[in-house]
Queue: 3 jobs
Job 1
Amino acid sequence: MPKGPTPTEFARTDTPTLAVTMGDPGGIGPEIVVQSLAGTTASTRFVVHGSGTAMHAAAEMLGIEPFWWSIDRGSDLLDSALGHRVLLIDSDADVRTKRSGALRGPGEDQPIRFERGVHKLNGALSYRWVCDAIESAKLPLGTPGRADGIVTAPISKSAWHAAGHNRHPGHTELLGAKFNTRRFAMMFEGPDLRVSLATVHVPLNEIRDVLTIGKVFDAIDLGVQGCKQLGIANPRVAVCGLNPHAGEGGLMGDEETRLIEPAITLATNHGMRVEGPFPGDTIFGRAVSGEFDLVVAMYHDQGLIPVKLLARDRSVNITVGLPTVRTSPDHGTAFDIAGRGVADAGSMTAAIETAERMLRSPTDASGSQTEGRGASASE
């Protein structure tokens, strides 16, 4: 297996290539991909892993003239087609001919239809597209077809499970496994707030058994690295407590003194600017006012509720700790509105712009860029 690129390598690419995955073809993925790529003016090249049927249907619905070049997945024409600004690697031929038993699509002469909701075919395709994008990001520098970063449209975890892909709860865990990365974290950036998570897709009643000093430290450390990639040389970090009132000195739980405070001390000893633990009901307001560049939350909803309340459809999900850039929108498949042309592509656009910004703004190990809040995803 080729060695994956390091952050220093991917950041130095003059004209970066982003692999864009369409997400679940029965959700809003095709339409937000079409909208976002139709509106971009950057010199970045885009390789879309998806379905021509879904892309054309989305473009027709939105009144957008198709603007991409298309080749079949596995085509020998890949090398010669890579010069196009937007290239679609189309899986429709695989679906029609059933070249993969996992796809189970229509026959040769039957039209492809992607139904809304949870479907095995949609899950098999969306999973394959992510895996294909990951493989392209693993290619060595200078290899034709190599992606410098990945932007993923929303998938349905239930559809992945229906297609037999149930080892990983979602994109973040799959990316960590495929890149053989032990330390990775989910981080969100919006116009006013950045948040990294110590735990991700964990049931609430299991967090107490999953949370460790190492997980809290990793969320701090990797969040700091993510901030540096976004242009903040020496970020100021606030860490949430797990319990109400950050444990109230042990009266409402001991996780703060037993797990969170040691992680903060460890991060401080490594030269990071970290404070806490703070009560979760007050610290986000202080961060929004500019006192902190990053808040480290202990669990999914603790961090995501303020992010989405403040910047729904404008914030971006970033996987930090990977040897490549990876961003995605802050929302899901939205099956209820898919195919109606009303989906807001703002978060997908922000995800693309954030990936471009991270690739074009390298930060060396010393964090030599300008200190302070970096540009937001919407700037």
Job 2
Amino acid sequence: MDRPALAAVAELLKPITWFPPMWAFGCGVVASGVALAGNWPLIVVGILIAGPLVCATSQAVNDWYDREVDAINEPQRPIPSGRMPGHWGLYIAIGWTALSIVVATLLGPWGFAATLLGLALAWAYSAPPIRLKRNGWWGNTACAVSYEGLAWVTGAAVMSGGATPDARSLLLAALYSAGAHGIMTLNDFKSIEGDRRSGIDSLPVLLGVNGAALTACAAMAVPQVGVVALLGYWQMPAHAFGVATLLALQLLMMRRFLATPARLAVWYSGFGIPLYVAGMMVSAFALRVSGTGALS
């Protein structure tokens, strides 16, 4: 049986996509208020699970079940190009799922349960009969929850020894998950033609390019307004100002993006999203310096 080259396997697992859940897990760690010293092994395992394991699994699953769509949109990818022969894409997806579950046992009950939920969402997003990605509203919600909220809450809970994270941490995680729906919509702009021909109702297909662009921007901006308001209410003015400044810069970029969204979706993803995730860490540090912890 032909075997794929290691380079093709690495490309299938898409390391560039691992950053968002790893970052969100880190935000949860910071927001927990628990001392980092002495907990680095736990933190490293959590980051490993969030990115190179669970997120990588989701990429392999998606590429296997999207192989016909990718043959239209991105035929150079490992599976449609033939560099990932036979059923190797599926085998890797299953193997990485099993590996993720094994490693997750090191994170305790909370981390293990969160890993199972993340893997379930990964398979439900791409694999039939559920295949949430067939509808942009449901599919993007599943990704946003898994990539941002679930990873944040897991980081906070694991650091707190499995205790329920502070209510403020849960609220911020929920808001940034809601905003991540817009990030997922931006990612759909590159595959409009293949989605349309394959019956996948991504938001650019459902709403049109301009409607999807406006929806993505609103989805990202409104939760951040909520974050700024909450930080102000919690008497953290410096952190509120920091998030507000990052949001203002995003709004300037959004104005340019909305003028020609099809052409600038990749540009905005590259420059606007880093400002969004920077605000996540600012918010996490706000909770840390305020002495937040976990609810008993």
Job 3
Amino acid sequence: MEQQIHDFLEYIQSSKGYAHNTVEAYRNDLTQFLNFALNERPQLLNWARVDRPLLLTFLIHLKERKYSAASVARKVAVIKTFFHFLLERHWVTDDPTVKLESPKVEKRLPQILTPQEVEYLLAAPAKHGTPKGLRDRAILELLYASGLRVSELVSLDADDVDLESKEVGCQGRGDKQRTLPISDRAAEALANYLARGRPVLTGETDEPALFVNPRGDRLTRQGLWLIIKEYVKESQITAQVTPHTLRHSFAVHLLTRGADLQNVQQLLGHSNITTTQVYTRLTEGDRSEPNPGPVTLT
């Protein structure tokens, strides 16, 4: 049973192009369910023995432990996808998840910043003339100028930046490549960082990463999140900010200025335009109205 989980994870990574973090999330959910199933039925020998009552018992188990509706819905979706995989390979003859219902999850609009709040945030690192300050200004300017996902930004290498053409090449989900234009401000911030910040941080190492930590190693997603939190606090921004807030703000501000929806879709790397259409709801009202909060839109 563990081997078939392994085969499934290899399939979604190599054939479907799922990101590493997504694959790990699937691994955790499936391992959790397998451990629960074996605890409930120690004689369980294969996935074909999993039935609807066992799945419902698992959902009750999650509810008793006060998992959020969103977490339960994600786990149900993962298990459904896994059993569909098993069925396609004839490793099971029936799919017990067919009529398994997920809890309803309230969809909330993505949190965005006003243009003024963005200016406050982007200006914060400029107060620090250190290599770290140069790096952080380049990070924030690039996030807002490109709409890059956090995972895409930390994956960038220095060679991915073309300051002459003011473009950045990135590898998105499913290994899809896209080239993104950047603003003059972002290009200037990157030029200053590459000339006076990055050489100090990398030292004698030959690290290819565009953005590095004080040890000269590639910056992680967690490290980037701490940087954003630092400047949100310094800027005294009271809005709820997540790692993707600048990406969401980039999209909404583009649409507000009259950008074409399909063009914004391409810039964001969305496979389906319906994902991008969520942002249009935020261009119809004023930010003075309460924002419902963050969403898992990426």
